[in-house]
Amino acid sequence: MSLTVVKKAAVLIIFLQTVHLVLWYSSVKGKPRAMYEQNGNISVNICPLIPQGLVGKINVEKSNTDWLKIESKYTMVSNGSHHPENCSARHKVAILVPFRDRESHLRIFLNHMHAFLMKQQLEYAIYVVELDKDIPFNRGFLFNVGFMEATKDKEFGCFVFHDVDLLPLNDQNLYQCPDQPRHMSVAIDKYKFKLLYDENFGGVSSMSKDHFKTINGYSNLFFGWGGEDDDLFNRIVSNKMIITRILSNIASYTMLPHIHASENPLRYEVLTTGKNESTQNKDGLSNLKYHVTEKIYRKLFVHIKVTINKADAIDQLKSRIKESSKLQKLFNLSNSTFKKKLRKHTRSRIKQNKF
Ligand code: BGC
């Protein structure tokens, strides 16, 4: 090859590279850094790894604002969701909130959380899930329903399981799902900012979609207060995952005052009988049955109202526990109704040859 051909080729290559560079520069000029990543190639407009503008400690507005005021404040929120305008969010997060009779808490919660989540540049939606009043409250079951219903709406990769009365006090507490399940409400003012016990996974926690499916979600059998989060901890351990926590000065929360709900008299029994993996695989997302009576896409949240077959629930519980008198009390059943339900249960157990 003659020298002039080589020279011409070299000039052509330099020319093409310059054109490429000029084109690339003009396309990224003036745009935020997050617009391009990975070896400087223009790619999707991804939001920064650490959201900009986080300040640490934040105030909580606990005064009772009315719906109109909050709704008009959040003009950019619709259907309970929001996504950043200038970049594409790294995380798609569903915030699931079990709910009963706490309307004033819900308003304070939404007012605080929308501002908080927006700052974190997430693509998120808030789901408030409410069980028929006729059935005792069941936090774990409501999380399972929220998970299924949110998943129908969007490919959420991360789920935050959130009590309505807990509000984060630090905006650096990132609502994302790291490699392992995360207990987020490490330090709560009501408990003098001290973790109650190492295995605690209650209050606020987060898990990836895959992890939550792997552990078969929450148990559906904890009616009334307590135990469902301890059971979830057991599921995490059974599946060889670990719980992670960040520093307590960041993972800090304030709790809105409320009357303590009545404790589930069966919680220890359901907890201890649910420790083995085969029981965990049978009770959770895998056997979740519910009927959505309403799914309303309100401006600041998706409101899901749900009901279950009471007799079914009693049947399932009966196969796990011995203390039937407590079960009768829990479901507020008269003696005769309860006996009828028990007879039905016994008949079906005999049919299945379980005695
Ligand atoms: C209950 C948990 C609860 C924890 C902290 C435990 O006894 O079983 O459900 O989260 O106390 O209140």
Automatic annotation (TrEMBL):
Membrane topology: Single-pass type II membrane protein
Lineage start: Eukaryota, Metazoa, Spiralia, Lophotrochozoa, Mollusca
Annotated EC: 2.4.1.-
Keywords, in A-Z order: Glycoprotein, Glycosyltransferase, Membrane, Signal-anchor, Transferase, Transmembrane, Transmembrane helix
Enzyme class: transferase
Cellular location(s): Membrane
Ranges of residues in domain Galactosyltransferase N-terminal: 47-178
Name this polypeptide is given: Beta-1,4-galactosyltransferase
Transcription regulation as UniProt keyword: no
